[in-house]
Amino acid sequence: MSSAAKVDVFQAIADPTRRTLLKLLGKQEMSVAQMTGHFSISRTAVNKHLHILSDAGLVSHHKVGRETRYQLQPDNLRELKDWLNYFEQFWDNKLAMLKFLVEQDEDSPEENPPLRLVEKKPPSE
Amino acid sequence: MSSAAKVDVFQAIADPTRRTLLKLLGKQEMSVAQMTGHFSISRTAVNKHLHILSDAGLVSHHKVGRETRYQLQPDNLRELKDWLNYFEQFWDNKLAMLKFLVEQDEDSPEENPPLRLVEKKPPSE
DNA sequence: ATTATATGAAACCCATAGGTGTCACGTCAA
DNA sequence: TTGACGTGACACCTATGGGTTTCATATAAT
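Output (structure tokens, whole complex):
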């Protein structure tokens, strides 16, 4: 129940303009006009992109005076990460293993086993 | 020159059918007809999706007799991973740091410093 | 009170994405 | 040789995505 997610996250990040918007919001909360300044498209177009990002649960917004400030809401990117995680086994077993171990560690904070890097091995192909 | 990448990877994985195709190919090399069996759309439609995945460099294909076998080619998913990596700092600093360190290690194979888990700290900005 | 600013919503345009069916061709089986 | 199988290339259709312009409204500034 983390988010309504009326729009697919994969779909939301498919557009390069929206990806740039997310990067911008990663730096700081911004108003619509402020963001529009970074593009050569109309403010209305930017607004549409923001709506899509909002429907995907990737940004939130709140009004400050007459302007609408948008904030990055990266939680739903986890879905993307989880998807990608499945494929990481195909190109880098070592990194996938490490991530697995780290996530295990996250779930049991009282334990803190000494993590060590495994032997280096070249990519299978 | 790893790939032509005529199609954006983000765009390529935006479609759920194409994501399913990638998952299928993650299990094993498959022919077009074989993949079509997993969907309710026409073979021609599947073929188009495969072309898009191919243009994005995510799959490769080779002919075996009269059938065309497709294989997963996950290298270009790194672009997606790199993009996502930037945002991970906003939801999980520890994991992002570890990944960074691991990748650093990948780049300098002659050195092998003892990596230790660092303390969790809030994003710098 | 009046004007400028910041925004949202609506109507509209056009390119393209995703789907279909058809046809031709190479390959495997009888 | 003949026919079924597996596929690629085309032509076509329709919904939607990303863009625009215009209009209305609320807030800030003078």
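Residues 15, 17, 41-42, 44-45, 48-49, 52, 65-67 of chain A lie near DNA strand D (CB under 10 Å from a C1').
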